[in-house]
C-alpha cells in the first residue's frame, strides 16, 4: 500500500496533471529538441494555482472533522498558496483569512497596482479576508494581532 493511502483525502483535483508539448518552443530551440511541461495550473477548477492545491487534499479532512470556521494562511502579495487557501475555503464552505507580506521586490512601475491585481484580487473576488502587512519574508514570530 502506498504511504499516502494511509491518510484521508478530500478530492480537489481533476486527476493527474496533464502534460503539454510546447511545439513552438521545441522548434525554436532546434533539431531533436522536444519540450514538455507538467501543467499543474490545469489540474483543478479552483483558481488555477497549480501544485499548492495538492496538500489541501490531505489537510481538508482534518479541517472538516474539526469545528472550524476559517482557514488562515500567510504568503507574499501574489502568493499561489494564499490564493489556493481562499479557493479551498470557498469549496468546503469556510471563510479564509490571508496575511499578505512583502516577500519580493516590486518594480517601481508596478508599486501602485501590485496589491490590486492577479492572485490577490482573485482572492478578494472569492471573498477572502485579505490583510496586507508591511512585513518582509522571514521565519520569525509576528507582533501583529488579528
From TrEMBL:
Alphabetized GO MF terms: D-cysteine desulfhydrase activity
Pfam families: PALP (PF00291)
Record protein name field: Unnamed protein product
Organism from which the protein derives: Ambrosiozyma monospora
Tryptophan synthase beta chain-like PALP domain sequence ranges: 13-138
Keywords: Pyridoxal phosphate
Signal peptide: none
Cofactor(s) recorded in Swiss-Prot or TrEMBL: pyridoxal 5'-phosphate
Family per record: Belongs to the ACC deaminase/D-cysteine desulfhydrase family.
